[in-house]
Amino acid sequence: MSVEPSPGTEIAEALRRSPVYADPSLEAALPAAKRRVLLARIEAAPMPVFVVLVPLVKGGTWEDPEELLTVVHDRLGRDGVYISLGSYSPQLEARQWGGTEEERRDSEYAVQVPFFLSEFDEAPLADHLIEAVELVAAGGGRAAYEKAIEHPRSEPSIELSDSAELIPTPVVAGVLGVAAVTGLAVWRWRRSARVLREQRPLLLSREILTAAGKADRAELRDRAEREVIAFGELLEGSDLDSDASRVHDLMTLALDAYQAAAKTLDSATGVPDLAGALVLVDRGRDALDSARALASGGREAPHSPLCFFNPLHGDAAGAVVWRELGSRDSLRVQACRACAKAVRDHRAPESLPDQVDGRTVPYYAVPTLWARTGYGQFGDDLVHRVLRGDLRRT
Q1: 140/162 Cα distance (integer angstroms)
Q2: 315: phi then psi, degrees, rounded to nearest 5
Q3: Does one domain contain both 13 and 81?
Q4: d(CA 109, CA 149)
Q5: Which has the higher per-residue pLDDT, 116 or 19?
Q6: Considering 197, 221, 248, which residue would you say is the last residue of a domain?
Q7: In terms of domains, do 175 and 160 share one?
Q8: 303/183 same-domain check
Q9: 186 and 225 within one domain
Q10: Which of 41, 191, 193, 310 could form a disulfide with 90 if both were Cys (CB 3.0 to 4.6 A apart)?
């Protein structure tokens, strides 16, 4: 009786024949002409490069690029640079086995660069891959990345294909049989979600969260108060003329998030509570923005998760598997790029601090609502639980 090879083994076997593997659902994203150019760039690179294009969807065969690339590398048994789609951003992901630590980091940075270049705003995935391989081959990826982010793009215009079904990420798991373009659509949709946060003033910006993270406790309270007040004023000025049930649900969520943020701020006893008020404002603003977009005939923007280790770091860049020191249990959490990198390098992330008996500990080491929910990462009921009174329950 024959045994079917595992998905990782199938991909590895395909890579023995060609350094580029594309799942059937993503083959349309890599036309023959572009594939030939990509293969030529790979052949000219001074190190082995492997491209693995598979859908990364919650509940699917592959959810996390690090897991995917690690498995494929283990099955193939060859060192080199492995490139895949990212999990929660449009930026490509790369892992390098072999070479120096500096070379490995340069490869990781290099594949992210095309996303920040304005000339790639409307470029297809194949062009991103070709540019990424060229940058990997050239070396100096980190310097190229730092240069690229100095001049953010002016007017992003990445949109979902008209032929693609709009699928929020949590729902994708049950619709793997959707048209072949869906995998690419999910990739573009995640990119659009990040762009929305950066471009629309209604959303709580990364800059606000970062500034709050650098503030001391008094400054953080002032920041939280200003953001809660500003959000309340936004809600007062929002009069949406729509009978759509989804618009109504989103407006209800926005109002509930405002009340939860105000309640949290009123009873805040430390930095975690003040951060929680900002997280709730962020959740409410996302809901309000989506309600406005839908009411005006646009599309709903999916809520963007914040960094598990410290939500004041801003948007998560991807998922990592992490185990707290002294624990046998591992957690899969969404983290910002710096914290995800720390976890992969076996270093402690810069976690949001809390105080216990005069000692500073990570917030997740204290049995609070924030730790139990990961500031909303472990479920969609954070707003409800705050309003229910769970904040002061141990």
Answers
A1: 38
A2: -60, 145
A3: yes
A4: 11
A5: 19
A6: 197
A7: yes
A8: no
A9: no
A10: 191
Query: SS3 of 298, please?
Result: coil
Same domain? For 150 and 70 the reply is yes
| Contact by Cβ (8 Å): 352, 362 | yes
My answer on whether 118 and 169 are in the same domain is: yes
pLDDT in tens, 313-347: 888 888 888 887 766 778 889 998 889 888 888 88
Q: DSSP secondary-structure letter at 160?
A: -
Cα dihedral: 211, 293, 179, 15 (round 10) = -10
- Name which residue leads in pLDDT, 108 or 174: 108
Which pLDDT value is given to residue 134? 95
- Indicate if 31 and 56 belong to the same structural domain: yes
The bridge status of strand 330-335 relative to strand 318-323 is antiparallel
Helix, coil or strand: residue 315: strand
Residue with the larger pLDDT of the pair 250 and 299: 250
Using alpha carbons, list the distances in angstroms from residue 299 to 127, 175, 183. 26, 20, 18
To the nearest whole percent, how much of the chain has pLDDT over 70?
Answer: 78
Rounded (5°) CA angle 54-114-195: 85
pLDDT at 214: 60
Domain that holds residue 129: 7-197
Tens of pLDDT, residues 157-214: 333 233 223 223 332 222 223 333 334 443 343 444 444 444 444 445 545 555 555 6
* 3 state SS of 148: helix
Residue with tokens 């297809």: 124
Q: Which of 167, 197, 227 is the last residue of a domain?
A: 197
Strands 359-362 and 20-22: unpaired
- By CB atoms closer than 10 A (0-12, 13-18, 19+), residue 146 is exposed
DSSP letters for 49-64: EEEEE----TTSS---
Task: Provide the pLDDT for residue 195.
Answer: 43
What's the mean pLDDT when you consider all of the chain?
80
Domain check: are 90 and 52 in the same one? Answer: yes
Q: Residue 204: its pLDDT value, please?
A: 54
CATH of the domain at 30: 3.10.310.50
Q: Supply the pLDDT for residue 394.
A: 60
Q: Look up residue 93 and give its amino acid.
A: E
User: With b meaning 16 or more CB within 10 Å and e meaning fewer, what string describes 158-169?
Assistant: bebeeebeebeb
pLDDT digits (tens, 9 = 90+) for 230-244: 899 888 877 776 677
Residue corresponding to tokens 């076997």? 13
Does 329 fall in a domain?
no
Number of structural domains found in the chain: 2
